[in-house]
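Per your request, structure below.
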C-alpha cells in the first residue's frame, strides 16, 4: 500500500514536470535549443532580411559591438514610444560601438517600411514575418529587448518597455 502511494505520487510529479516542459516549448518559454534564454548565455544565431534587402546574421555580424535587439510590432504602443529614444541612442552612441536592430515580429514588409518611416527610424529594421527569430529568442510578447556585449554574451533582457534612463544606463555599462 505504501509502495503504491509512493509510485502514484512519483507518477503525478513526473506528469506535472512533463506537462510544464511541453507547455514551455509550445509557448516559446524555451529557446530553440530547449533551454531558457538567459542573461549570461550566448544569443541564438539567426539570419533575417532587413528592410533594405540585405541578409543580416545575428549575432555573428556584430562581434566586437554592443548589440541591442528590440523586438516590436506595429500594434504595440509602447514599442512605438521606445523606438524614437533608441534612434537618439543610435545617433549618440553608434560611433562608440552600439548597434541597434529593430526586429519586427510577424508583419509584412510594406507595413513595416511605412511604420519605420513614420517613426523616423534610421537604424536597421529586420523582418521576422514567420517569427523564426522571435521563437529562438523566447519572444512571447512585444516589446522585448536584449543587450549583447562586445563578446557576444547577453547582458540584459528586458520584458516589456523600459524608460530612456534605464536603457541609457544599460547601454553605457556595456560601451
Amino acid at each position: 500500500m505504501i509502495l503504491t502511494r509512493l509510485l502514484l505520487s512519483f507518477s503525478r510529479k513526473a506528469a506535472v514536470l512533463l506537462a510544464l516542459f511541453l507547455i514551455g516549448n509550445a509557448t516559446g518559454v524555451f529557446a530553440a535549443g530547449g533551454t531558457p534564454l538567459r542573461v549570461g548565455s550566448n544569443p541564438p544565431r539567426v539570419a533575417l532580411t532587413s528592410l533594405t534587402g540585405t541578409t543580416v546574421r545575428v549575432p555573428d555580424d556584430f562581434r566586437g559591438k554592443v548589440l541591442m535587439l528590440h523586438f516590436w510590432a506595429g500594434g504595440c504602443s509602447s514599442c512605438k514610444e521606445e523606438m524614437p529614444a533608441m534612434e537618439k541612442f543610435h545617433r549618440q552612441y553608434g560611433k562608440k560601438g552600439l548597434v541597434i536592430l529593430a526586429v519586427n515580429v510577424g508583419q509584412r514588409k510594406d507595413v513595416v517600411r511605412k511604420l519605420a518611416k513614420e517613426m523616423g527610424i534610421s537604424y536597421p529594421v529586420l523582418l521576422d514575418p514567420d517569427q523564426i527569430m522571435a521563437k529562438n529568442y523566447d519572444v512571447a510578447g512585444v516589446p522585448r529587448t536584449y543587450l549583447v556585449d562586445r563578446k557576444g554574451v547577453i547582458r540584459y533582457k528586458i520584458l516589456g518597455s523600459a524608460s530612456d534612463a534605464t536603457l541609457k544606463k544599460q547601454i553605457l555599462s556595456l560601451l
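Strands lie at 46-50, 55-58, 66-72, 98-105, 125-128, 144-148, 154-159.

Regards,
D.
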